[in-house]
Please model this.
Amino acid sequence: MTIEQTIQKAMEGGWKHPSYLEFEQYDEKREEVMFWGDGTQTDRISIYKILLDSLFWQALGKAMNWNGTTYFQMKHNIRDIFPDWKAYWILFILDLSDGKSPEQFFEKIN
Model:
C-alpha cells in the first residue's frame, strides 16, 4: 500500500485527526500529509506525527482485519502478547530503526 492508501484505510477503520475533516494528499518530498481543515484551507502535518498515533494503528488494524494476537519473544526472557495492530506498529518502528522509510514498510502490507 502507499502512504495515501494506508491513511485512507485507517480512516475507513474510524481514524481521523482530531482537528481535520478530510484527507487531501501525501507530499512524499516534504513527508507531510495535507488535510482540509474548515473547508477553506489546507493544513500540513508530519507523517511521523500520524504514524506515532496509537489510534491510527488501531483503526488501521480494524480496517485490515488484524483481529488476532501476536506473541513476541526476545532475549533475556522478555515475552509479551500484543494485539495484531500493535505488533504491526512495533514492526514498523523496527523498520524505521533499520533505516527504512514508511513507504518501504507499507509496500509490504496488503
Observations:
- Residues 3-104 form one domain.
- The chain has one domain: 3-104.
- The CA atoms of residues 96 and 102 lie 7 Å apart.
